[in-house]
Amino acid sequence: MIEATDTIEGAITKLAAGNLGAASVLGRIVDDPFSGLLVLLDLDRIGLNGEQIWRLYRDVYDTNLDRFVGHVKIQVGRIDGPILRECP
Predict the structure, then answer these.
(1) The domain containing residue 48 runs over which residues?
(2) Fewer CB within 10 Å of terminal CB in the chain, N or C?
(3) Per the domain annotation, does 86 fall within a domain?
(4) How far apart are CA 13 and CA 61, in angstroms?
(5) Considering the domain boundaries, does residue 13 fall inside one?
(6) 8 Å CB contact between 55 and 48
(7) pLDDT tier at 88 (50, 70, 90 boundaries)?
(8) What is the pTM assigned to this prediction?
C-alpha cells in the first residue's frame, strides 16, 4: 500500500512488486508527475500491482497507455460511485 511518506520511486517500487514490465509502465505513467501520481494512487486503490499491471497493459490494452489509464479511471469510478448523473 502506498503511504504519504513514499516518494514516486518508492510508490513505483511497491506497485511493480518486482515485475520489470510493470515498473516500465509505471515509469511511463509518471512522466507527468502530478497526474501520474494520481494514477499510481488509483492503481493502489483498486488493488492492481506487479504482473497484473503488466498483463493488463500488454495483453488487454496492447501497450496503449491512454487506454490502460482510462481503464484504471473507470475502475476507480466504480468504487467511488457515479460522479455525473445521466440526463433524462
Answers:
(1) 8-80
(2) C
(3) no
(4) 22
(5) yes
(6) no
(7) very low
(8) 0.85
Cell match 469510478: residue? Answer: 77
Tell me how crowded residue 28 is: count the other CB atoms within 10 A of its CB: 14
Phi-psi region of 87 (alpha: psi -120 to 50; beta: other; left: phi over 0): beta
- Dihedral pair phi/psi, residue 43, rounded to 5°: -60, -45
Q: Would residue 3 count as lying in a domain?
A: no
Number of domains in the chain: 1
Cell of 30: 509518471
Please indicate, yes or no, if residue 40 is contained in any of the structural domains.
yes
Q: Say if residues 64 and 40 touch (Cβ distance below 8 Å).
A: no
- What are the tens digits of pLDDT across the range 75-87? 998 876 554 444 4
Give me the amino acid identity at 10: G
